[in-house]
Request: fold
Amino acid sequence: GDMRDTNAPERWSRAHDELSPQLQLPSEGAASAALLAVAATSDEDALRVLHALLFGMLSDPARAPRHFRLLDGCTRDFHGRAVEELRELVLERYPRLAQTLKAQLLWILARFLDAGARHVKKLVVALLRHVACGDTSKETSWLRTNILSLLRYHIGWLHATPAAIPPILLSYLR
Reply:
């Protein structure tokens, strides 16, 4: 299917439901091996595994760390793809996401900053698009404050990614 399909979260939810037997294996090693076996079948199945793990991280904060470790276990290449998927979600649906999903999105962003994921700058910039100039709403203030906190905490990432500084500064100065 088209990656820009606006039903991404529904597809993610469906993938999560379909792969719940693998996701719920008690041993992380067994879950990781089972997911890898599915992902190895085809590009489409690899994307299903990715969507299932992203949905798990977004919708289940208590199990999000396990889902992130499973994502890590699949392959580091998944990070760049996951960032792209999340970026599209943010650009297309951010205002309509539930607050718990928005909070989890920032948790995932922090993990990707920690991991030095490819293209993470694109996700930061996509989120900053929702920090509207002059918007003093509670939601925008929450996002603005939390992104700033994340960036302060990950200052090393900023130093290593100087190309991220202009769009970030622009978002906060306008």
Remarks:
- The mean pLDDT is 90.
- The longest helix spans residues 43-59.
- The radius of gyration is 16 Å.
- Residues 36 and 47 are 11 Å apart (CA to CA).
